[in-house]
Amino acid sequence: MNQVEVCFSPPLFDEFAKTNSIVVVVDIFRATSAIVTAFQHGAKSFIPVSTIKEAKELKAQGFLAGGERNGEVVKGFEFGNSPFSYMSEKIKDREIALTTTNGTRAINIAAKGADTVLIGAFLNLQALANHLQTQGKDVIIFCAGWKDRFNMEDSLFAGALTNLLLNSGKFYSDCDSANASSLVYRTGRKNLMSFLKNCSHRKRLTHLNLEKDVEYCLQRDITDVIPVLRDGKLVTLICRH
Amino acid sequence: MNQVEVCFSPPLFDEFAKTNSIVVVVDIFRATSAIVTAFQHGAKSFIPVSTIKEAKELKAQGFLAGGERNGEVVKGFEFGNSPFSYMSEKIKDREIALTTTNGTRAINIAAKGADTVLIGAFLNLQALANHLQTQGKDVIIFCAGWKDRFNMEDSLFAGALTNLLLNSGKFYSDCDSANASSLVYRTGRKNLMSFLKNCSHRKRLTHLNLEKDVEYCLQRDITDVIPVLRDGKLVTLICRH
């Protein structure tokens, strides 16, 4: 049996980091949903960088650039973190430098504390669960949160994935965060959209007129793509089960 | 209207710290339950210290000493953090130096980021809620957690207090952690003991043969005592409503 644990926010990740584990990074609104969408539409790779400066340097070298700060697209960049912006012919076989407020930071933190870093979203939830069940490794679901705070949407995803793994019979959990996430998901799963109506971050997205993005990011299982970090680049995992 | 927010773990507290707010520190198993119990039984004050060395120095100056590491009493100290050890005549009007794995650390972190630091437990829940409703200040419920991790019992308390404050009509919350805690509490409140049966920390306490302590700490409203931090010392708050 392997364990599944949930880390609610980047400052807590040190307590979870361990060798021989798989970390699933999640930033539902919207970085990891956008990354999954981009690969589904043919992107070749993402380089997650922490600063706008780094992304600009890569852009100057011929990369496409995606960047978001406080929910808004960085000026001069091709993409922000709206999944819709990545549904485009122009990303096919291209490499993209990406920097976002929470998501890329969490990916880079995870890279230092795990053998394998995968990217999760509701969009690839079942594919991810299927893959993790074949790996024989402990799993840490790492919520990017919102500016180092716990957020509801990432925890809902953590609960959904925890439930699938526990139900497979191949995982157990002694982790209170995993148990709490699972409970929150079981309460909200019938209508995630309406469940999230009281969440601060979703209110913020509504304010930015991103209702359509929120709805898109809450869809389950629309792709089998699983992004994986290899040598500092996200590429698509080729699964051989 | 004032806001109520919940901080799940010490490394997240920086994001919550603000002036003109009241921080309620909670470490249900068992530091804050023990502190409340000690005041109920006549203790004069507590000095929360971070290290065993500091507690020993105060003990040498005539203080009683309470200390716990990993759930066990520090060798040579009068008390650990079992509430039962403080139900004693010998604490009457005495000053106690206290150091615990999670609770006293959280108290000292809170002291740097708030005007007012209060001590919460299920034992004084309603008294605390009544007091907070008269203060006209934002409230941050600060869960001590377990070694920097989220834990279920502190979050259950956070949810219980959040509910009481929201129901008073004097508070609102945009905080996802407060909403999640409230939901977890509403799910578990009918039988906290059975709800906690799957929690890692409670399992640990069972292992240490502390079932009796767990049961005691989950009792609601057995005292009106509210400990408050004044100049580095915890004393009882005299409420004038």
Largest interface: A-B, 28 and 28 residues
**Which consecutive residue ranges of chain A, at least 5 long each, have pLDDT under 50?**
none
**Amount of helix of chain A:** 25-40%
Q: Overall mean pLDDT score of chain A?
A: 92
Q: In which order are the strands of the major sheet of chain A placed? A: 7-2-8-1-9
At the fold tier of CATH, the topology name of chain A is putative 2-phosphosulfolactate phosphatase
Q: Hey, roughly how much beta strand do the residues of chain A contain?
A: 15-25%
Strand and helix map with partners:
2 copies of one chain form a homodimer.
Chain A: E1 2-7, E2 21-26, H1 31-40, E3 45-48, H2 52-60, E4 64-69, E5 72-73, E6 95-99, H3 103-112, E7 116-120, H4 125-132, E8 138-143, H5 152-167, E9 171-172, H6 176-188, H7 192-195, H8 200-207, H9 211-217, E10 227-230, E11 233-236
Parallel strand pairs in A: 1-8, 1-9, 2-7, 2-8, 3-6, 4-6
Antiparallel strand pairs in A: 4-5, 10-11
